[in-house]
Amino acid sequence: MNTQYSIYQINSDRDKYRVRFLSSSILKLVLGKFEVDPAIYDKVYDGECGRLDSLEGIYITLNTHLPEDYKCRSLSVSDVVEIKESESIEPGFYFVNSCGFKTIDFDKK
Prior knowledge:
This protein has about 110 residues and is an alpha+beta fold.
C-alpha cells in the first residue's frame, strides 16, 4: 500500500497573527495556547508514495527529493501533513514542529 498524504500551508494573506513558521512552543507564547487555525491554511499538495514509511520520510522527500509535480515551498515548521492512508503511519493530521511532529485536530472544511 502506498502512503497517501496531503500538505497544508499557511496562507500569509489570512495569517493575521503572523504564525507561519512558528513552532508549537512559540505559538503557545504568542497565542496563550497551542492552537492551529485551519481557516488560515490552504491545501497545497496531494501526494502518494510507496517508499514513505514515516513522517520524517515525507519531510525529507519534500525538502531534498521534491516530486516533479510539487510546486510549493519545502515542508517547514507550521505546515500540516495529513496522512490519508498508510501501512506504517497512523492516519490523521500532524503539525510540523521545530523538532518532529505533533498530532493535532484539524477541520479541513
